[in-house]
Amino acid sequence: MRIQKLIHVEPVVVAKMRSIIHCQKPEVIQSHFGIGLNTWVKLREGKAIRNSVAQRLLQRLQRDRVI
């Protein structure tokens, strides 16, 4: 069994993400950030997410000039 590496996304990044969405519907989260609602809830609560998901998210945010 493979152990998943988990990391925390900086609260300032999550705050920036929160500021650019108009609602927190799953389809809005998915279209803006490419993540599911469960991942978004973890981010909002300050919980760790899978490293691979975090890396993709941060790359997307940089590409879209959110961060």
Name the average pLDDT: 95
Largest β sheet strand count, sense and barrel closure:
2 strands, antiparallel
Strand content: 5-15%
List the strand order in the largest sheet.
1-2
Number of distinct beta strands? 2
Radius of gyration: 12 Å
Give, in order, the helices and strands: EHHHEH
Low-confidence segments: none
What is the percent of helical residues?
55-70%
State the separation between the terminal residues, measured CA to CA. 35 Å
Which of globular, elongated, flat, extended, rod-shaped describes the shape? globular
Number of helices: 4
From the helix content, strand content and strand pairing, which structural class follows? mainly alpha
3D structure, described in words:
The mean pLDDT is 95. The chain is globular and about 40 Å long. Helices cover 58% and strands 6% of the residues. The relative contact order is 0.22. The protein contains 4 helices and 2 strands. Strands 1-2 form a two-stranded antiparallel sheet. The protein is mainly α and 67 residues long. The protein has helices at residues 11-20, 26-33, 37-44, 51-63; strands spanning 6-7, 49-50.
